[in-house]
Amino acid sequence: MRRHQVNGYGFWAIGLHWLIALLILGLIGLGFVMRRTAIDPALQFSLYQWHKSIGLVVLGLAVLRGLIWFVARHPEPVASLGPIERRASLATHVVLALLCLVVPVAGWAVASTTPLNIPTFFFNLVVIPPLPLGRSEAGEDFWSLIHAGTAYLLLALAALHAAAALYHHFIRHDEVLSRMLGREGSISPAAQPRPTRGRKQ
Ligand code: HEM
Ligand code: HEM
After folding, report:
1. What average pLDDT does this structure show over 174-199?
2. What is the pLDDT of residues 85-110, one digit of tens each?
3. Cα 34 from Cα 135, distance rounded (Å)
4. How far apart are CA 70 and CA 58, in angstroms?
5. For residue 48, how far is the Cα from the chain centroid?
6. Do residues 80 and 189 touch, judged by C-beta distance below 8 A?
7. Can you give the residue ranges of every domain in the chain?
8. Is 6:76 a contact under the CB 8 Å cutoff?
9. DSSP 111-177
10. How many angstroms separate the alpha carbon of residue 138 from the centre of ligand 2?
11. Residues contacting 104, CB < 8 A, separation 6+
């Protein structure tokens, strides 16, 4: 098992990144279908329960990633990135990581405030207790708005982030995507930082 390295991400960071990304994209599709399409009420109930259970798994994984961020060493930014790109990429990562926490907590708040009082059956194994928030229609509407708004914001930001990763890989030919795929040392010569032609010392 690899830990974070100076130039690359470790096993856990890579595994968590792709697992969380996959689950989130699935949850957004599922959330849209269960909430915004006309489907059979029994199927809708079941989709809501799957959505809530998988969403809580994402919350757990996002907390784990947060803990790893604090204890593990961060890889150095790819050498060919300029200072503005470095700041922009760090800011995007921090916002994405925070949204991975805020979105599921807001979803949990929707389930906790709805006056319908429908329990959350975690994969049909245990009932997840509600958050300590009063049940009311106003509360449910508020948290639904926050949950949906932050979920679609996350989708938009993730799309930009993925486009940036693909741009780095296919246009700039640098290591940005390769190292998140666990392939180190695959930097193309075109992306190597150029030696500056200074005075001979
Ligand atoms: C990262 C995790 C999650 C994502 C990306 C996500 C995404 C979404 C999306 C896109 C919708 C449809 C919003 C709309 O079009 O109005 C939705 C609805 C919903 N989600 Fe999530 N969700 C997540 C986690 C959770 C969790 C953990 C729970 C509860 C424990 C939850 C409960 C709900 C509920 C109850 C709705 C329906 C809201 C309503 O009726 O207005 N979600 N979710
Ligand atoms: C919901 C989807 C996604 C989320 C929430 C997300 C979030 C993140 C976060 C928080 C990081 C910082 C590193 C870490 O994980 O600790 C990161 C890095 C990265 N992500 Fe994503 N990501 C998503 C989807 C994608 C997709 C679809 C791609 C590629 C097509 C991608 C490519 C990358 C790459 C290449 C890095 C490393 C960037 C670098 O080292 O500068 N991500 N992502």
Report:
1. 62
2. 999 999 999 999 999 999 999 999 99
3. 22
4. 18
5. 20
6. no
7. 11-183
8. yes
9. HHH-TT---EEETTTEEEPPPS----HHHHHHHHHHHHHHHHHHHHHHHHHHHHHHHIIIII--SHH
10. 35
11. 55, 56, 58, 59, 62
Per the CB < 8 A criterion, the answer to whether 68 and 12 are in contact is: yes
In this structure, what token pair is assigned to residue 37? Answer: 């399409």
Q: Which CATH number is 11-183's, of 3.40.50, 1.25.10, 3.10.310, 1.20.950?
A: 1.20.950
Greater model confidence, 16 or 197: 16
- Alpha-carbon distance of 116 to 45, in angstroms, equals 12
Tell me which residues have their CB closer than 6 angstroms to ligand 1. Answer: 24, 27-28, 31-32, 35-36, 51-52, 55-56, 58-59, 103-104, 107-108, 110-111, 120, 144, 147-148, 151
Tokens of 105: 């907590």
